[in-house]
Specification:
Layout: H1 7-14, H2 18-25, H3 33-46, H4 52-59, E1 64-72, H5 73-76, H6 80-95, E2 99-105, H7 113-121, E3 126-130, H8 137-144, E4 149-152, E5 163-165, H9 168-182, E6 188-192, H10 198-213, E7 219-223, H11 228-239, E8 249-252, H12 255-267, E9 277-279, H13 286-289, E10 296-298, H14 301-316, E11 325-327, E12 331-334, E13 346-348
Parallel strand pairs: 1-2, 1-3, 3-4, 4-5, 5-11, 6-7, 6-8, 8-9
Antiparallel strand pairs: 10-12, 12-13
Helix pairs in contact: 1-2, 1-3, 2-3, 6-14, 9-10, 11-12
Length: 349
């Protein structure tokens, strides 16, 4: 096998010491720009690849960040939300020459595995957590462990934690406002997300707060689990009721459930949006390809992943001055499922 190229080989080609070559490749200001360029060119020509293990040993850094999702890998890779978060994380991590590690649970019964794998092994310089349940004590343990950590979402019980998220309450209120004020819907149903997660609780709160503000009394709530199947089941339950008092507007807590519900309504011959207006939440792709297209709230999941990772590097590098909470704006994306013009998708900030 050919001999691997070492830092010493690069240094010899340029005529500098190995220490100087190392500093040049790391962009150290003590090395002139001319020498840095020469060392980089020599490294490229020789095919030199720095040893990540050696770099980590010298800097006492793992050059990696972890995404902890306390759920199964099937759940993670089956939902577009996580793909968007990972894309944002990878963008930021690449800029810092670091890798992203994904830590999940084997199944629903092994709730601590995703955390312990990262906290005990120290294979990451810090961790980002998303989709943790409200009663997940491991989140608080991670924050208290000393390992730099950023949480994606809302964690009102952890006021000192560094978090990145959106205002799910206000965003859901905007959906209700649109159905009531623009389309005159008065009998509304909300299909919630899982209520053991803060997102589900917040979106339900937003729905109830808005319907109360509008003086609506014919309001129904059905608990879902964010899957297409639960959205379909909720619509079957709705259709089993009295047709005369059936809701004329449905607010789904995510687009997956809205898609399942929309298919059920269309199979039953219900006109959407004529008889029942439908809105969702997320806009990760599904809402654009249904017929009709689904009005929804666009969640900047990729941006949340990117900003969370940048905040994590701030913590790792002990850069202060940043707020504990970063809240990103959302957009109301108007399509035909609510009754708007089917040929004019619009974004309302």
């Amino acid at each position: 096998m050919p001999k691997s190229v070492t830092l010493k080989d690069v240094a010899a080609k340029v005529g500098v010491t190995s220490a100087a070559a190392s500093m040049a490749l790391s962009g150290h200001e003590r090395i002139s720009e001319k020498t840095r360029a020469a060392v980089k060119q020599a490294a490229d020509e020789l095919g030199y690849v720095p040893s990540s293990a050696g770099r980590a040993l010298r800097s006492q850094r793992a050059d990696a960040v972890a995404l902890i999702v306390p759920n199964s890998s099937a759940h993670v890779f089956g939902h577009l939300y996580f793909m968007h978060v990972l894309t944002g994380m990878s963008t930021a991590a690449n800029a810092h020459d670091a890798q992203v590690i994904v830590s999940t649970n084997a199944d629903a019964s092994s709730g601590d595995v995703a955390y312990e794998r990262v906290m005990r092994s120290r294979t990451a310089d810090g961790a980002i957590v998303t989709s943790a349940a409200v009663d997940d004590d491991h989140v608080q343990g991670l924050v208290a462990s000393g390992l730099p950590a950023v949480l994606i979402g809302n964690y009102p019980h952890l006021a000192d934690a560094v978090t990145v998220g959106i205002d799910d309450v206000t965003a859901t209120e905007r959906l209700v406002d649109h159905l009531v004020e623009v389309h005159g819907r008065r009998r509304l149903l909300h299909v919630t997300g899982t209520l053991d997660h803060q997102t589900g609780l917040d979106r339900r709160q937003g729905f109830l707060r808005a319907t109360e503000r509008h003086g609506l009394t014919d309001v129904t709530v059905i608990e879902g689990d964010l899957s297409e199947t639960s959205g379909a089941a909720a619509m079957e339950q709705m259709l089993a009721g009295d047709a005369g008092t059936r809701p004329d507007g449905v607010v789904f807590a995510n687009d997956d459930m809205a898609v399942g519900g929309l298919h059920t309504l269309r199979r039953a011959g219900v006109d959407v949006p004529g008889d029942v207006a439908v809105v969702g939440f997320d806009d990760f792709g599904l809402a654009r390809v249904t017929t009709p297209g689904i009005t929804t709230v666009r969640v900047p999941a990729e941006e949340m992943g990117r900003i969370a990772t940048e905040r994590l590097f701030d913590l790792v590098d002990h850069r202060g001055g940043q707020p504990a909470r970063t809240e990103l704006p959302v957009e109301l994306v108007v399509r035909a499922s609510c009754g708007c013009d089917p040929d004019a998708e619009r974004v309302r900030t």
